[in-house]
Design a protein that fits this description.
Helices cover 38% and strands 18% of the residues. It has helices at residues 8-21, 25-28, 54-65, 97-110, 127-130, 140-153, 157-166, 174-179, 212-221, 228-236, 259-272, 288-305, 333-345, 376-382, 387-392, 396-403; strands spanning 45-50, 69-75, 86-90, 118-124, 183-189, 251-257, 276-279, 284-287, 313-322, 351-357, 369-372, 406-407, 418-424.
Length: 429
């Protein structure tokens, strides 16, 4: 299959679609489900969960187990039909009252469980915002303000989650502790670099060794303003459950889908098309514009060395990039990566790229990401759009919307982090 300039964007979109497809819970979850416990009296079987993929995960559970008792919290627009499990929609990435009310009900469901009871927890990216129960003395509005400040700070996701855990009554193993002494199996879809269960959705079922001092250090390091009540809470104590706590001894945490699997699926598809695939890693972190500049230089060096008879080269990477908000535009890490990449490439021939979030939402916009081509900047100039100014304002989504180069998928019902692909075509000869 020959890939040329006209077919590059469609080819890259096909790779992204494949990466999303293999992470669909309906496709891969049945192999990870144990036989359904009998649930005989006095034992109960409860299904709980939170995250952007959690409703689809619940749907997959009932496709195997049949109707179940339970409650799952997902993002607005991400609900799926279930026969027994109740699906509640709430706000993401900044939590709202619906999420707080549903979390309170989930804690009520877990209270009073015994050793004969079984809990299946379905956790995916997004659970940090959807499972919301602030510590005593901190209001939901104050928690929302801290969350918004964290998102705008440029801090890595694991550092953000350290703060979130110590301001919560459910994160950092506390959800699992609430179900003790019931047996719990937590199935997780990873959206974090390294796939550490303690960082997926802020680890509601996983013990965490971080301290209040660690949370305060994050706020200091990234100069994150917080209300006085938060400062007080981070000085008084935390309910975060340390690893090895007896309340976690009957909990099994299992990651069932991760970015590496999706990248490899895309790589396999590309290799079948005769492309030289180079995997740059599934756990890249850093400022979107800085990673874009580094990958642009790498792509330009490869392009300069290609001969007309060489196969195309594909650079694939995953992970979770960040954006330090400097302007008032509408953007997200993937769109900002694409815009910075286009500027760094400056029309270098033969290089096309796509960057998208596998959950279909880049930042707070209902857009997965964007594509670029050698003519991206000239087309922007012709349309009267200043690419450098758009980047300075963090306005990448507006930039690509004007060029009709956004990738819009709607809810993908899964979430295995960012997907970036740079296609480098050889010179025509």
């Amino acid at each position: 299959m020959a890939i040329d300039e006209t077919g590059a964007a469609g080819f890259l979109r096909g790779l992204f679609d494949r990466a999303v497809e293999v992470a669909d819970p309906m496709r891969m979850m049945p192999a990870h489900l144990p036989p359904k416990p009998p649930g005989r009296v006095p034992g109960r079987v409860l299904v709980i969960g939170a995250g952007k993929a959690s409703a689809r995960m619940a749907e997959a559970v009932e496709s195997v187990w049949g109707p179940c008792e339970g409650l799952v919290i997902t993002r607005y627009g991400y609900a799926r039909p279930c026969k027994g499990i109740e699906i509640v929609e709430a706000a993401h990435p900044v939590p709202d009252a619906a999420g707080a009310a549903a979390t309170a009900r989930m804690l009520d469901l877990l209270s009073g469980l015994g050793e004969e009871d079984f809990v299946l927890a379905l956790i995916s990216g997004g659970a940090s915002a959807l499972l919301v129960s602030p510590v005593t003395g901190v209001t939901l509005e104050e928690k929302r303000a801290v969350n918004a400040a964290l998102l705008a700070s440029g801090a890595p996701i694991d550092r953000m989650n350290t703060v979130r855990k110590h301001l919560s009554r459910v994160k950092g193993g506390q959800l699992a502790a609430a179900a003790h002494p019931a047996r719990m199996l937590a199935l997780m879809i990873s959206d974090v670099p390294g796939d550490d269960p303690a960082f997926i959705g802020s680890g509601p079922t996983v013990g965490d060794p971080s301290t209040l001092a660690d949370a305060r250090a994050v706020l200091d390091r990234w100069s994150i303003p917080v209300p006085a009540s938060v400062t007080a809470a981070l000085a008084q104590g935390s309910g975060v459950v340390p690893p090895g706590d007896p309340r976690l001894t009957r909990v099994e945490n299992r990651v069932i889908a991760a970015p590496a699997q999706s990248l490899e699926a895309a790589a396999t598809l590309a290799r079948a098309a005769g492309i030289d695939v180079r995997l740059l890693g599934d756990a890249l972190e850093g400022e979107a514009r800085e990673v874009a500049a580094a990958q642009a230089a790498q792509a330009q060096a490869i392009r300069a060395a290609l001969r007309p008879t060489d196969p195309p080269v594909l650079l694939l990477s995953g992970g979770e990039l960040t954006v330090t908000r400097r302007g008032d535009g509408i953007g997200g890490p993937n769109a900002e990566f694409c815009l910075a990449l286009a500027l760094a490439l400056n029309g270098t021939p033969g290089i096309h790229a796509l960057a998208c979030d596998t959950d279909g939402v880049d930042g707070a916009a209902e857009v997965a990401g964007a594509v670029i081509a050698p003519d991206t900047l000239p087309r922007a100039t012709s349309a009267g759009i200043d690419a450098a100014q758009s980047l300075a304002r963090n306005d990448a989504h507006s930039f690509f919307a004007a060029l009709k180069d956004q990738v819009i998928t709607g809810p993908t019902l899964t979430n295995v982090n960012d997907f970036r692909a740079i296609l480098i075509l050889p010179p025509s000869g």
